[in-house]
Amino acid sequence: MSDVRSLPVPDGLEGERVDAALARLFGLSRGRAADIIAAGDVLLDGKEVAKSDRVTGGSWLEVTLPPPPSAPVPVAEPVPGMGILYEDDDIVVVNKPIGVAAHPTVGWTGKTVLGGLLGAGHTIATSGASERQGIVHRLDANTTGAMVVAKSETAYSRLKRAFKERRIDKRYQALVQGHPDPFRGTVDAPIDRHPSHDGRFAVVAGGKPSVTHYDTVEAFRAATLLDVDLETGRTHQIRVHMAAIRHPIVGDMAYGADPTLAARLGLKRQWLHAVRLGFEHPAHGEWVEFESPYPDDLARALEIVAAES
């Protein structure tokens, strides 16, 4: 059933585009907000609007929100290339391959870590929403590396708390364009959805606090290999922060990477890999660490950039 909302436009949204205002008021993506506007389901002072129109503080907004899409269901199916780094009765640590999402989401039609584990007969915790049971953290679909999934309910609750309290050591390596100055540093900049590009994120005033620490592993002629430590875990955080300091991740065209360099290195995605994951084991409390080797495409690209230096 549709949900009709009527409210005055807050003064803080004065001058915003209608689609941006809707996105902020109702927690929608810009694309979904634009679809609602295009359907004629948004009235401003009683008149239909275009998505690029501007709102005025105090104007009366009437919005008919469509029912939310039903939650997708995990499809139990094998995921080629997804290895198991470690497994016991409480956790399974996977080596996530390229092109695989952590769990099903609306609009995603590809394979998932959760579906792959279920398809291989692994028992997964039932805690959490049905489409992401057992999932305590995520990697982007095109980011590879170590990822832990909870098998027991105790593991789920304890790992979720550990991630929330930042008691997890998540280490990534990223090959970025150019040479960051300083070679070791911290990017402390808030992140939120990009104001004009649906599906992307950006450094935005008033966004969620986001902190990324980086250190140089090796500098090459055209790029630098960084070791990255996340203090927070925002969506696309490393990609956004590297782009913000004008050193986008090699191959990450969505965030400004050079397509010519990516093609020369044979990359069809960002050079970003979750190399190490450490945490207190949820059952016995001892510290455990797991490492993931570079996948073939990243290893080959690194060999080429090194040979050109």
TrEMBL record:
Task: Provide the active-site residues from the annotation.
Answer: D140
> What are the boundaries of the signal sequence?
none
Please state what class of enzyme this protein is.
isomerase
**Record's catalysed reaction(s):** a uridine in RNA = a pseudouridine in RNA
Which Pfam families would you find in this protein's record?
PseudoU_synth_2, S4
Q: What is its EC number?
A: 5.4.99.-
GO BP annotations, alphabetical order: enzyme-directed rRNA pseudouridine synthesis
Domain RNA-binding S4, chain residue ranges per copy: 16-74
Q: Does the keyword RNA-binding apply?
A: yes
Q: Which GO terms describe its molecular function?
A: RNA binding; rRNA pseudouridine synthase activity
Q: Which UniProt keywords apply?
A: Isomerase, RNA-binding
Give the matching InterPro entries: PsdUridine_synth_cat_dom_sf (IPR020103), PsdUridine_synth_RluA-like_CS (IPR006224), PsdUridine_synth_RluC/D (IPR006225), PsdUridine_synth_RsuA/RluA (IPR006145), RluA_PseudoU_synthase (IPR050188), S4_RNA-bd (IPR002942), S4_RNA-bd_sf (IPR036986)
SUPFAM superfamilies to which the protein is assigned, alphabetical: Alpha-L RNA-binding motif, Pseudouridine synthase
The domain of life for this entry's organism is Bacteria
Family according to the record: Belongs to the pseudouridine synthase RluA family.
Q: Which NCBIfam families match?
A: rluA_subfam
Q: What does this protein do?
A: Responsible for synthesis of pseudouridine from uracil.
Q: This chain belongs to which protein, by name?
A: Pseudouridine synthase
Source species, please?
Actinomadura logoneensis
